[in-house]
Design brief:
Rossmann fold; alpha/beta; 2 domains; 15 helices; homodimer; 41% helix; 5-stranded parallel β-sheet; 429 residues; 13% strand
């Protein structure tokens, strides 16, 4: 195959459709290895920033790579999809969210495909990196492209699923280190895809499987985590009910015990874990099991607020009279991603209660002032994301005259170091 | 405390109430370390066997320990509970099963306590090793003993929860190596209990917590495993639905991926995992989540049989006309314990279908003949327990003229090495 030879010899151009949190670190990492990369997006602001060498969001190591790539000019961002003509390998990294009926919404994926098929695709390789339900590649994407082009996948052009498995905040590191799970429409599709990934790391471990298994693998991995976080939260609720401390119990259980790797309770959400269960539960046996995990995790922000309400009631206050500071908006520690963040949900619920809410997240809004200013006259503080920057809270509170209630969703503190009332999710009296 | 001193100096007698699969390895292990142990039971057959130096069930290393202890005469089994008078420390290891309403049945536990309180318990230590719902020690056992004796726990006598966490087949090894989680009614109760366990291993890691947290810790550990097995089984069902192979997918996901430790599908049950969820779900938020795991796991034997029925239907046969060999009766590999075994459930369901069932388990019935004889004229074989002894099945079948359907609940085989129709749980076409 000529394309195989060209990939091996690095005589090819890689197109990345969607240069968001998956696509940009991906494209830039390839460019950093000397591959010619064109990143496609419809967001002009992102394109402008990226072309001026600026990372449009925070991701560990991304800005360094972008600085390097700015010098070598190996990465270009564009909204001009006619440049797809010049691309030999195209990877689709657009979002596949759920719609309001909790059904996967592939509109961005098919919009990307529609652009791709406007130009000749003979001998080109198309890789789907976006999350999709099992069977999407074989039963929808493949016949869709074939119908639009009158070409045959695996013969005239090449097509593979290779779902992204990286974690926000570790994208660059994991892109190089994690194994890839490749499900090509045919053996040569898989082989070409593997060669592309070997540009990033010649020793990358590669697993070849069917497209459906590749799609399932990604979903199994995320649903496994999501269900385990739900279980940890269940244990948090149970421990509270019994007046005990789930964090302490779980740490004890896990230590020197090879059958125990129970995660700790905390707010669970984010753009992957929250939705991936629904990609699996279509025409599936026992969908309730995964849906229950979702209900449980989605209930935790409400549960935390009801803990706050009970505490306020003891002081004869209601939420509507109060000012509450929410620390953290990102869905997890050390990142600025707020998509499907339980911290944002918490703010929404508080707003619905008509209480005065102030928020503080040094990752999401780096210019949002100091922790000091945010918490100085509030009735309560909710730690919604466990950013390490919040560790100074006890010192900040010690320097103040007020005594806000602190609700710790992450057990960042023991409680003793904080003056005033301390309440932790997963801990009873 | 005199008792503390006596424990440290090994001038004490340990009583173990219930010398079954938990109590016997426990008592014998202490005796092997030179502690005087009296094991109490109501089963005369067990007492006779144990006193003649014979392990009444299979457990790795137990018979060796019993041989040693027979010589030193450090362990005596008895049904004479008046000997409780001579005991300084008594540990209760009786079963706490669920009753038919799925409510914990503590009758054996309270029957043991009733015997204990017939004799003076001043300055004695009572340890509850049986599984119990959170709060049982503090809210039921403690006031029960205090009412019966007019003595005060933590002052006049000592009381602690230290639930067993060992796995069948690894009891002896884990009893020495695993950390203990001790929840005493008071600090001195915990300290005494720790000193007892240090007789087994002076470097044993010991965690001190509240009685409720100790009870919860045991339940969290088992429910965590049970829910994860349910999830693995869910993945098995999903993979089947999509015509893919859950084992292959899960192995790929887990490799070199520190967020993936997904267990493999298989029949899930046994005396601990099956029931422990119900100890937690009393007056608990979201009991459905754990109940769903139970429904899912309990459904797998039915699911496997319906796979067999579909396969037989292709040959125009129904179960009632067939002879089926079930390989394995124990609830997991390498042991002879059939309590709440899904393999036994499978046999029950087959019997209910009025098919002819033959069973074979070299651990449960060591004298049950050869695999060859069992499978020679059957229509189907179900591998219900993954005992390593079944690995010879392909060779056995190759030597036969018949071609039974093989249903593999554990993916012991790839399928290609077996002649005839091979069907695996968790694997589609």
């Amino acid at each position: 195959m000529e394309l195989l030879h060209n990939i091996i010899e690095n005589k090819f151009t890689l197109g990345v459709i969607g240069i968001g949190r998956v696509g940009l670190p991906f494209g830039v990492s390839f460019a950093q290895k000397g591959v010619n990369v064109v990143g496609f997006d419809i967001n002009e602001e992102i394109i402008r920033k990226v072309n001026s060498g600026q990372a449009p969001f925070f991701e560990v190591g991304l800005q360094d790579y972008m600085n390097e790539v700015s010098r070598t000019k190996k990465f270009t961002a564009t909204n001009d999809h006619s440049l797809l003509q010049n691309v030999d390998v195209v990877i689709i990294t657009v979002g596949t969210p759920l719609n309001t009926h909790m059904v996967p919404d592939y509109s961005q994926l098919f919009s990307a495909l529609d652009k791709i098929v406007q130009y000749p695709i003979s001998n080109k390789l198309i890789i789907i990196r976006s999350t999709s339900s099992p069977g999407t590649l074989e039963s929808i994407v493949k016949p869709y492209i074939e119908r639009k082009t009158n070409l045959k996948a695996g013969e005239d052009f090449f097509l593979a699923a290779c779902p992204e498995r990286i974690a926000g905040g570790k994208c660059i590191e994991e892109l190089h280190g994690l194994p890839e799970i490749i499900g090509g429409i045919s053996e040569n599709c898989s082989r070409l895809t593997a060669e592309v990934f070997r540009k990033l790391n010649p020793n990358k471990k590669i697993f070849f499987t069917t497209p459906k298994s590749a799609e399932l693998a990604k979903l199994f991995a995320n649903v496994y985590r999501y269900v385990n976080f739900a279980l940890a939260n269940e244990f948090g609720l149970i421990a509270e009910e019994h007046g005990e401390d789930a964090h302490e119990i779980i740490k004890i259980v896990n230590e020197d015990y090879n059958r125990g790797k129970i995660p700790l309770p905390g707010l669970t959400g984010g753009p992957c874990l929250s939705k991936d269960g629904y990609f699996l539960t279509q025409h599936m046996p026992f969908p309730e099991f995964i849906h229950m995990a979702s209900q449980l995790n989605e209930n935790i922000p409400h549960h935390v607020i009801s803990k706050l309400k009970k505490e306020l009631a003891k002081e004869n206050k209601t939420l509507v009279q109060c000012k509450v500071a929410v620390l953290g908006l990102a869905y997890k520690s050390g990142i600025d991603d707020t998509r499907l963040s339980p911290a944002v949900k918490l703010v929404d619920v508080l707003n619905g209660e008509r209480c005065e809410v102030v928020t503080y997240d040094p990752y999401v809004n780096p210019s949002s002032g100091s922790l000091n200013d945010v918490v100085k006259d509030v009735d309560a503080i909710i730690i919604a994301t466990n950013h390490p920057e919040f560790k100074i809270l006890p010192t900040v509170l010690n320097g103040m005259t007020s005594n806000p209630i602190v609700i710790d969703c992450w057990r960042m503190f023991d409680g003793k170091e904080l003056k005033g009332k301390y309440i932790a999710f997963g801990k009873g009296k």
